[in-house]
Every structure is written in C-alpha cells, then in structure tokens.
Write a structure and sequence with these properties.
homodimer; 343 residues; alpha/beta; Rossmann fold; Dihydrodipicolinate Reductase, domain 2; six-stranded mixed β-sheet; 38% helix; globular
C-alpha cells in the first residue's frame, strides 16, 4: 500500500485548476510508477473562499464550482478565508502554491511559503517572487523542517531548468546564460515581424490571455528581470534582486526596427543574460539583434529558451514550445514527485 | 571522511583520457560538494596494455605514457592484456568503459559490462551498442547486484538526455522525438551549404577527427539508427534494434539539392525520429528539408539536438553545441556522481 500524500492548494486559478486536472489524469500512473497516492484535503482561492475536508475534496466538483463562479463553501464545508489561517488549519503534507504575487516584495507568497514550511509541509511554488526575495532563507527553513521548497515552474513554465542543474548536470559550473524568458514580449515581437503594429500585437496578446491588462511589467522587462534574478540566485548561487539587473524593455522598438532587422535576416529579441566574472555578476535584460545562426533565432510566439555556457559543456540550449497553464502545472507535478522522494 | 570510490578505466582513448583529466580537475569540488573521494586503481587500453595498482594509479603519468605511445607497464606494474581478465583482477567499485564497439552486436563492450556488473561494479559506459543489444538485461543485472548501469554519453555526448527523462521529467510520457544526432553528417551538410563538395566536406570532417577513415557508418545513417534504437529502447521502454529503424543516409544528397534548399531558406538535415502509435513504434533516419521556423534549423556543424513531444509539455528541444571528447567525458562524470548516490 503506497504512502498517502495529503495535498493543499493555495491558489486555484488557471494554473491551480490545470494542476488539479493533471493530478486526476495521472492518478493511476503516479501510484503505479512512483507509489504515490494523493489526496487533496484543502483548496484556498482568492475569490471563491476555501474548503478543508480531511477525508478528501472532490476535485472535479471543486473545479466546476470555481469555474461556475460559485464559492467553494457550496460544496458543504467551508474553510478560513485568510490564507495564513487556512495554512494553520489544513493538515497537509505538501502545499501547491500558485497565488498572485507582488514581484517587488515576493508577498503574499513569501509569508505563506514560510508558514507552510514551518508547519512541516513541502512547498511546491509556481512563483518566482519568493525565489528572488527568499531563496536562501526558505531553503534553509525547509532543511530545518525536513521538507522541500521547490519552484520548477517559476521560470520557463514546466521546462526543467532548476531540476536540470540540480539533477542532470551535477558537478558542472554555470559560467553564463542567455535566453528569451518572457512570453508576452516574444509574442508581440513575433506579431510585429508579421506586420502588425505594436498596438495590434499587444491587443492580440491580451485577447489570448498571454498579456495582462496592464502589460507594463512585461513590456518594460520587469518580469524578465525577476527571472534573471531567480536564475542567478539559484543556479549561480549568488543572491541577486531584480533591481540589480540592468533593464531595458521593448518599448523603444518600432515596426521599422523590426522590419529592418528582418531585411538583414535578423530578429530583435528581448534577451535575458547573466555572466559570472571573477566573483561578480553582470546581469541584464535588453533587446538584442539575433542572427539566424543563434539557437534563439527560431524561438517564436510564446515559446521560450535558454542557452547555458558551462565549464563542462561548451553550450546547451533548452527550448520550450507553446507553453500554457498545463505546462506550468506539469512543472509543479514534477516537483511533487521529487518532494515525495519518489524519483 | 568521505567514502572512497575505486575506479577502473576500460578504454583509454580520447574519451577515456579526457575523463581522466576531468576527474583530476574536479577532484576538489567532487569531494567538497558530493563527498566523493576517487582513486583510480586500474586502466586497460587496447594497444598500450593495462595497469592495476590498488594503492592508486598516477593518472597524469598514465595519460602521458599512452600519449607518448609507451605501454602502461613502463609505469612499473602491468595488468592482464585481456579485457575480461582485467575485469576479473581489478577490485573496483565502478568501471568507466569507452572501448570501440561493433554496433551490430554491441561486443566486446556488452560482455565486459556484464562481467563488471556481476563483479558488483557500477558500470558507466559511453557506448550505445550495449544499450540497443542489452539494455533490459544489463539493467536487471545491475539491479540484482545492487549497482547501476548508466550510459548518458551514448547519445548526444554529455548532454543530459537519459537523465533528463529519468530525473527531470518524471511522470511525463514521450510520444515522439525528432533530432539531429550524427555529428559527421551534420558537419558535412553544413560545409556543403558553404559551397564545398561532398568530397571536400568529408575530407575536412576526417581531418578534424570527427569522421572515421571509413565514414560509411555515419554517411549511410547506421550510427544515427543505433542512436534512435537506443532512445526508443530506453525512453519509450520498447526494445528496438537498429535494423528495425527505416534508414536512408545522406549519400543521395548532392550540392545541387543543398543549394536549392538554401535558395528557399531551408536546409537538408539527417533527421532521426520515432513516434509511438497505439503500442507500435515508427522509427526512421532520413534526410529531411527543414525550414527556418524549426528549432533544428540552426543546428550546424558538429552540434546536435533533439525535440521531444510529450503528453505534459507540447515540445521541448535540447541543443548541444560544439561537442568533443571532453563533453562525452562530462556525461560519464555526471553518471559517476549518480552511481555514487551522491546527487
């Protein structure tokens, strides 16, 4: 009989619900291949209340309830409305966290992750904010309480980036990286290359749910800078906050720039990069002209990619195509398998 | 005090010697970061005899001796000339195997790996032949003897492919893959695109040590077919031998074909692919026209790449740049860290 793992969801938006669906569809294979038997015992949302049910929440019902705009209390048992109160009340082994976060502070996720770790829960987080504002402290806290703090989905959705370095590239040293890590700007640049205006391209990105109503965090390079800071903090073991990443967004790029580049067989891309030089890190986000020989050249639309330069492999590029909530959800599932020690 | 791991090298060509150098250069960090303390106690070569020295072989001397064309016995202690006799005599915890192999049989590596596993050694192999001819049996044997059989370097040198699936993509299902896995043919096609004839391009590939004197294994797609068979066998868990891979090499491609493709903004590449359809595998190696939107388009020279289509990530591409013996050696080092249980 496999061990049962009691789960709590904090955040039940597109990502949380995609994860709930993925866990249902993988239930049989997780039990057969990893001996993992999952029971969701709590779900906390931002706008639909929360539910705690130690005997197990019917997740298909919970998804339906939230998607119909109903409160979770309509399922019969209601939990605390406040996130921290929910975390104190739920007796889970692992927390699946995907709530909206302020990048400048990492809150409220940072406080919730800390509370969950202190209650002895593994924390699987989809957020990069807590990584840049608390990686070392949260990792140390997890160690003290004998649990894991994992966040594969924080950068490049479910593509294995942090786990690649932790598990697949042992004893290698990361010297520098260069990548395309923001989907909104890459989609806008792709659309502009196809002749749309910036305004049309942005409207399209908003219409398909990639760009937010206020797109400035993406356009000005803030989202990308937070990702650079998270990668440097974890993979280069050098704590770096986003404000220390030199940053220029795509707001200075016109249709003329993009068409002139295309004419020369090149493309403007918002490039995220960092280089370690004698104990010092140079980190930046800026538009760069990419030529057709670069693996980043073919990264179009919402796809993303990163090239690692290491002391043991001259370079290695990971490209992730067509991400979405299900991709982010998969990164969290992979972390859950790791946290369960089932690998 | 970290545990000591006693190592034996079987094969001491470019890859074996690069690995010996890498182990020396990583000695301090392996001990500090992974608690691994390594001692090489035996080296067996094809043409320079062997040495067994339980108190430790001076590896810089061993490298120098072989590179000067001297027999290892000139270092003072000589071991058995026969590989199997060497494996019976050496009391190692792990074998680092990189000997020349017949792809059609996997021998003599297959027999050596089996012998080493049965003596309770972990086996780290750089060869794909034993994978396609003995993966399930060797893996089961390793399990019986409480050791590991690992072969990250068998496909795409040191790029993490097998470990990616084993450790970084848990609970995912591989539906299909498509890649460029043979360096010689990709280098020849790259050179022909730059205007060289097939003969000039081949001569260049031979001059820089990428192509063999008899290049037919590469040109006719055999090397690529063995790699496809290895990937299907391990990653799709469906044993497949290379003769069941539909195969066409690059011998039918002329300079005209390549220039005509370039004129349309496309490239001919030798594409390795496999797709799982209802319990059945379609596997092939053939030249295909690749357009500029494909991540395989920018893979030039000796670089290689593979795109995975999975049930959890729409697609993920791994591209490895500028491989060489050091890259292959790194894949073996990564496997050694795994075998030591140090991850």
């Amino acid at each position: 009989m496999p061990d049962e793992l009691r789960l709590a969801f904090l955040g039940f938006g597109n990502v949380g619900r995609a994860l709930a669906r993925l866990l249902e569809s993988k239930r049989t294979s997780l039990e057969a291949n990893y001996g993992m038997c999952l029971r969701v015992i709590g779900v906390a949302t931002g706008r639909h209340g929360s539910i705690i049910r130690p005997e197990g929440v019917n997740m298909l019902q919970a998804i339906e309830t939230v998607e119909e705009g109903q409160p979770l209390s309509s399922l019969g048992t209601s939990g605390p409305a406040d996130s921290l109160a929910f975390l104190q009340a739920v007796e889970a082994d692992a927390l699946l966290e995907s709530i909206p976060v302020n990048y400048q502070t990492g809150q409220p996720a940072l406080g919730c992750i800390e509370a969950a770790l202190k209650r002895g829960m593994h924390v699987i987080s989809a957020n990069k904010g807590p990584v840049v504002h608390g990686y070392q402290r949260l990792t140390e806290l997890a160690r003290q309480y004998g649990v894991r703090y994992l966040f594969e989905s924080a950068v490049m959705d479910g593509a294995p980036i942090f786990s690649l370095w932790r598990e697949a590239l042992p004893a290698g040293e990361l010297k520098s990286f260069r990548g395309i890590l923001n989907s909104t700007t890459n989609l806008i640049l792709t659309q502009m290359e196809q002749g749309r205006s910036y305004e049309q391209a942005l409207a399209h990105a908003q219409a398909i749910g990639v760009a937010e109503t206020d797109p400035s965090g993406d356009i000005l390079g803030w989202d990308a800078a937070v990702k650079v800071a998270a990668l440097v903090t974890v993979l280069m073991n050098m704590p770096l906050t986003p404000d220390r990443v030199a940053r220029r967004g795509i707001d200075g790029l016109s249709l003329d720039h993009i068409q002139a580049a295309a004419h020369e067989g090149k493309r403007w891309k918002l490039i995220c990069s960092a280089e370690r030089t004698a104990g010092h890190i140079e980190a930046r986000v800026q538009p760069e002209l990419i030529d057709a020989a670069d693996p980043l050249y073919t990264v179009m639309g919402t796809s993303s990619a990163i090239t690692f330069v290491t002391d043991v492999l001259p370079w290695l590029t990971i490209t992730e195509g067509d991400p979405g909530p299900m991709t982010t959800a998969y990164g969290m599932l992979a972390d859950l398998v790791r946290a369960a020690g089932a690998l």
